[in-house]
Structure formats: structure tokens, C-alpha cells
Design brief:
This protein is of the alpha+beta class. It is 50% helix and 23% strand. The protein has helices spanning 24-31, 35-40, 42-55, 59-62, 79-87, 96-110; strands at 2-8, 11-16, 21-23, 63-66, 74-78. Strand 4 (63-66) and strand 5 form a beta hairpin. Helix 5 (79-87) runs antiparallel to helix 6 (96-110).
Amino acid sequence: MNTEIGTYNGVVITADREADNVSLTEMGKACGKLPAHYLENAETKAYLEALSDDIGIPISKLVVTVRGKGKQLGTWADRRVAYHFANSGLAQNLLLPFVSCLTTSFMASRR
């Protein structure tokens, strides 16, 4: 089930709390970037490999693109990947103020 975790630049950003994923599609829309550009970046690929090795979750589960019909279309990423995207140079740090909202939201859902 998707939950609104905040609004940035007029774009509502949602998370799937059960899967611990955040919509990279919405985050990208908020800063005018496509998640595909972030995911093609060499630094991002290195980060995903290191994160996958560290936490034992395959990259294919850290970032999931849903196509077709439904409510959860788009690119969804583990919250750690969402933080990385928010802090990436590709996002031009436009989402940095949003990171605190992400952190607060996910921490509250864990209680």
C-alpha cells in the first residue's frame, strides 16, 4: 500500500512501506530528472553493487521498475537508494531538504 511521505516542488512522493521502497519516478519528477539517467550513472552502479554486497539484497530487488497497468507503476527503490538519489549530483541536490522527511517518515513507520 502506498503512503504519501511528502511533497516536494509540488510533486507528491509516495512510499510502499511494506516493501520499504520509495518512488524514484516521483522523486525524479520533483527535480526534473529521470530515474533511468541516475541508474545509468557509473557512480550509481558502483553504489548499488556495494550496497547489494553489504546487505545481501540483489540489485534487482533494490530497484524495481513496474510497467503495465496498476497503481504502482514506475521505478521503485529501497529507501537507501532513494537517499543516494536525493544526494546525487544528478539530482543537483534539489531533494536534500526532502531527505529529512524521508528519514522521519520511515522511522515513524518502524515504531
